[in-house]
Amino acid sequence: MAEDMVREEKMEEEEHEPLILMFATERCAYPCADVAGLSKISYPPNVRLIRVRCCLMISPDLVLEAFRKGVDGIIIGTCYPPDCAFKEGVERTRERMKKLAPKLREMGIEIDRLRVEAICSVCTNVFKQVTEEMTEILKLLGPTPYAEERMRLRKEKEAG
What we know:
InterPro entries: MvhD/FlpD. This is Methyl-viologen-reducing hydrogenase delta subunit. Keywords: Iron, Iron-sulfur, Metal-binding, Oxidoreductase. GO terms for molecular function: iron-sulfur cluster binding; metal ion binding; oxidoreductase activity. The structure is a single chain. By secondary structure, this protein is of the alpha/beta class. It has a single domain (17-159), classed as Rossmann fold, CATH 3.40.50. The chain is built from seven helices and four strands; from the N terminus they run H-E-H-E-H-E-H-H-E-H-H. It has helices at residues 2-15, 29-38, 60-68, 89-98, 101-107, 124-141, 145-159, and strands at residues 20-25, 47-52, 73-78, 114-118. It has a four-stranded parallel beta sheet, sandwiched between helices. Strand 1 (20-25), helix 2 (29-38) and strand 2 (47-52) form a beta-alpha-beta unit. The relative contact order is 0.19.
């Protein structure tokens, strides 16, 4: 019986597909995802895109709340700095996200679960690489305590 429980836990760990939220800028990263889809370039299906006007619109509180809701990882897809319509938006976003490290540690979330990456509108290879790398990193790290709660609630919902 104990062996069955251990085997079942291992299967659940292996089955864990990390949930990635990607905030994608409407001038660069989001069009890139669109081109990837139209070109039938496969990228991990566990990535959920949210289009934002500019990466500066992504508040640190929004990132923390997404983790609390059970997201395993977050990618902020920015424009390349010279292409940023708001001049220093990319650098300011990077600095704001770096300042989240102490709060993330306090929540029990590794800093590797948050990534800020410049993605141009036609660089589908970069988009694919970033999403695949993030998926692999998150699989190694395993689910966050918040993701475990999200999975438990989903199982209860499916059962009941």
